[in-house]
Amino acid sequence: MSWLVAAPILVPLSTAALCALAWRSIPAQRGISLAGAVALLLCAIGLLAQVAGGVQVMQMGGWKAPFGITLVADTLTAIMVLVTAIMAVAVAAYSLGDIDPVRERNGFHPVFHALLVGVGGAFVTGDLFNMYVWFEAMLISSFVLLALGGTKEQLDGAIKYAALNLIATAALLLAVVLLYGLTGTLNMAELARLVPQVQNQGTVTTVAVLFIIAFGMKAAVFPLFFWLPASYHTPAVAVQAIFAGLLTKVGVYALLRTFTLIFVGDTGWTHGGILLWIAGFTLVAGALGSLATKDLRKALSWQVVAHIGYMVMGLALYTPLAIAGVVFYLVHDIVVKTNLFLGAGVARRLSGSSRYEGMGGLFRSAPILALVMFVPLGSLAGFPPLSGFWSKLVLVQAGLAAQSWWIVAAALVTALLTMMLAGRIWAEVVWKAHPAGDLAGLGGFSPGRRVALVAPLVALSLVTVTIGVWPEPVMDLAGRAALGLLDPAPYIEAVLGAPAPQPTMVGELPVTPAAPGQGGAP
Fold it and tell me: Where, per UniProt, does this protein localize (predicted)?
């Protein structure tokens, strides 16, 4: 047992509380917020090191599973917590130059860390009901962050966001209740043992579809994604960035966890059927939506939808290589989407608009910023050797190995449409002249604000380049996470303290490391 398993909850919770105590001092809140994010990063690094020795479990209050509240960290959990912490540091630093005093006085810093509490709790929970609770914590915090500022556009986006996510919450609660009625437990390790023993597996599949609806709406998959483009472009840039980077990925994580651990009895229907079709439509719909709009922030919001499709595609293919590709894609996409929204915020500040016709001149006024922004934009498009190239390549290879030709075609078409969008953004935002003439550039900002706005972009771009040039460490971690998901025996035994069932069969192949080039984990 390690207390670091609880750190993704305790550290941001403590930071939020300290920020609230320092309510009257904005400088103190800023310092506490940044220090708390750094502390979370250090704990996340420690947690990743510890899970190398095996699954880490904490039984709250001394109550053993499945009766008490269980916190669990395996390789996937540790990866997600680490990437979350990196984004928390980047966004906390960026917020020092982005968030206006009104939003700060109204509680941005404590609510930001309260959001991280919900994200961290969803990653480390070992219980489906508590996952529902952490989703609720995220919903409340994100609604407040969306509404901070009180503009008409923000309130409209916040209402749409809350209303549609409440539907997802109701579906999740209904699914949880039905699953409890079938098994008498909500501990995920215990569910992995009991769900295959339920006599009416048709009912289990129906409950699984409810979980797809609930988590799919959180992840913004087709046709449940319309709330995202309607709301993500409305709040402050720092809020946009953390939403785009993390919130939908928590939904993907929930799908990944439940559909590799619990609902694995009818993969031909849930994975190769529903999830595969959802992935295909999500890919193409998101890419087309991004090309149809003339607003940079809305285009990037649609791209959040499109690239969720790649992750659901990997889960649907359900092979070791595909699952490893999902984990790799999660890491890449969280970094790139956060960076793109942060960069779009700086570009909007310089140009005075987020619509293409009102933008331009970035290369002439801020060439270094333009070059830094090329990295996440190129990675989004999949240019080698950036991280986006490798993440797409692994999933395409997995699709070809599974002979799922049409989903590979959808993935390649989406990649082509994304390249077209990247070219449009570069031409409209960076290369062309601004309609009002030369811009003032970054020199118009104070030195402190300039560092706060640009340093996170540079840091995240370096992360993207490092993953692209040296993908082996991330791919190795992704492969370990994939094998842990497809062979849940160590997870179950660590939580329940009893021998687990034999590894689940995937198609006709047992979940074991395959040789390179044969669909196994890289």
Answer: Cell membrane; Membrane
CA atoms of 232 and 239, how far apart (whole Å): 9
**DSSP tag of 56:** E
Token pair listed for 326? 């999902």
- Letter for the amino acid at 507? G
How many Cα atoms sit within 13 Å of 231 on the Cβ side?
A: 28
Q: What is the pLDDT of residues 116-167, one digit of tens each?
A: 999 999 999 999 999 999 999 998 999 899 888 767 777 777 787 778 778 8
> Is residue 313 within 8 Å of 283, Cβ to Cβ?
yes
Between CA 77 and CA 55 the distance in angstroms is 10
Place of tokens 């690239």: 307
Using an 8 Å Cβ cutoff, are 382 and 388 in contact?
Answer: yes
Q: In angstroms, rounded to a whole number, what is the distance separating the alpha carbons of residues 298 and 301?
A: 5
**Neighbour-count burial of 194, counting CB atoms closer than 10 A to its CB (0-12 exposed, 13-18 middle, 19+ buried):** middle
Look up residue 399 and give its amino acid.
Answer: G
Contact (Cβ atoms closer than 8 angstroms) between residue 244 and residue 341: yes
Q: Which residue pairs, CB below 8 angstroms and at least 24 apart, start in 27-34? A: 29/104, 29/109, 29/110, 30/96, 30/104, 30/109, 32/109, 33/92, 33/95, 33/109, 33/112, 33/113, 34/89, 34/92, 34/93, 34/96
| pLDDT tens track for 495-504 | 998 654 444 4
The number of helices, as runs of H, and strands, as runs of E, in the chain is 23, 4
The pTM of this model reads 0.92
**Percent of the residues in the chain that have a pLDDT greater than 90, as a whole number:** 67
307: its two tokens: 């690239």
